[in-house]
TrEMBL record:
InterPro entries: Acylphosphatase (IPR020456), Acylphosphatase-like_dom (IPR001792), Acylphosphatase-like_dom_sf (IPR036046), Acylphosphatase_CS (IPR017968). Its EC number is 3.6.1.7. The keyword Signal does not apply. The keyword Nucleotide-binding does not apply. This is Acylphosphatase. It catalyses: an acyl phosphate + H2O = a carboxylate + phosphate + H(+). Keywords: Hydrolase. The active site is at 24, 42. Residues 9-99 form the Acylphosphatase-like domain. One of its GO terms (molecular function) is acylphosphatase activity. Belongs to the acylphosphatase family.
Length: 99
């Protein structure tokens, strides 16, 4: 039997040119590729915010992607993250885009 990985949750908010450039869609694709759950959404302030849940190594990979890559047409000026909070189980069953 394999070792059960501990789960964590991290909130994020990304600033810059992140709306109207398919940032949410690319975030969803990357999260699904990594097997992470959660959501993301546009804010009225022009940012994208969300939550990701999963093993800490995959959350770290997603954090780097959110901070430095994003969608091809995005310009990331600032990325804010909460510390990884331990969770006992997933709160979401997939990664979705909230509208």
């Amino acid at each position: 039997m394999g070792k059960v990985k501990k789960l964590y949750s991290m909130m994020f908010e990304i600033y810059g040119r992140v709306q109207g450039v398919y940032f949410r869609k690319h975030t969803q694709i990357k999260a699904k590729e990594l097997g992470l759950y959660g959501w993301c959404m546009n804010t009225k302030d022009g940012t994208v915010k969300g939550i990701v849940e999963g093993p800490v190594d995959l959350i770290s990979e997603m954090r780097i992607w959110l901070q430095h890559k994003g969608s091809p047409r995005s310009i990331i000026e600032k990325a804010v993250f909460t510390s990884n909070e331990p969770i006992s189980a997933y709160n979401f069953s997939k990664f979705t885009i909230k509208r």
